[in-house]
Amino acid sequence: MTSKIKVSVIVPVWNDARRIVKCVNALKAQHFAKGTFEIIIVDNGSNDDTFKVVSEIDGITAIQEFAPGSYAARNKGLSIAKGGYVAFTDADCVPDEKWLEELVNCAEKQKYFGVIAGDIHFFKDEDEEVDEASIAYENFFSMDQEAYAKKGVCITANWLSKREDLLHLGGFNAKVKSGGDHDMAKRLTQSGLRVVFCSEAFVKHPARNKSEILKKRRRVIGGAWDKREQKFKSIKLTWDAIKLYVKRTLIVFLTSNASFKERISVFGVITSIFFVSLSEILKLAGGKQSARS
Predict the structure, then answer these.
(1) Are 44 and 20 in contact (CB under 8 A)?
(2) Which of 40, 50, 69, 155 is the most exposed place for a label (fewest CB within 10 A)?
(3) pLDDT tens, 195-205?
(4) Distance CA 233, CA 253 (A)
(5) Which residues pair with 161 in a beta bridge?
(6) Is-contact 11 76, C-beta < 8 A?
(7) Which domain does 227 fall in, by range?
(8) Residues 198 and 226 in one domain
(9) What does the DSSP 8-state code read for residue 6?
(10) Would you state the torsion angle of the CA atoms of residues 184, 185, 190, 195, taken in this order, to the nearest 10 degrees?
(11) What is the dihedral of CA 227, 230, 234, 239, to 10 degrees?
(12) Cα distance between residue 86 and residue 76, in whole Å
């Protein structure tokens, strides 16, 4: 019997019961024909009550993947997905009610696409304390899917692909804790497919506070460390961090229309990111395991 499922939505979650419920509620409210999409929530070994919470939600599939890392969790969801398309978002995102409809509409107008990259809008979560400097930083530098798509990459906060294309390439690299989305997108483009930006399909993402931004940077450094096998990778990662710091500083002070106060506040955040990068590289060079949070 042929499955009626057209799209499988896969969301990994780790220790985030409050926000995954908001995400699931938004997914269940999609303007998409009932019975033609499924929601798969993959708990990645949470040590709080997250799995219990999602297991009690009707109308979704809740499973577990204990290998640490969101890409291992996404692969677990991919392994049971029934849809011809697979869509990914994150546990802290709130998809627009027309998100799936717009992703599929974009996909069906394209030939030879590997990824439909939806847009990301930032909002201030009423339950979180977020400083103005961090919000300004997010608006400057974070999650620019249109720019990513031009480079042939995408992030899994808003992503749609054909299931068979991902399976053909063996799924995401489950060995890394960050950067697996860019890696997967690059493999798709190297196979002759394209990353296509779709502004109409958007999810809302909470602006992160400074602590969360720095945690993300540690994950990014760890992901880059795990992917590199050559010698002198600490030197190369340090050089990459320096180049990023200089590039972002120039963007803030030379190409922005923001107020002077906003520029100074964002410069403070990118300076903190730079020193966290150096600190994490030193720790990894000393034998520390890459961070997942």
Answers:
(1) no
(2) 155
(3) 999 999 999 99
(4) 30
(5) 86
(6) no
(7) 210-285
(8) no
(9) -
(10) 160
(11) -90
(12) 13
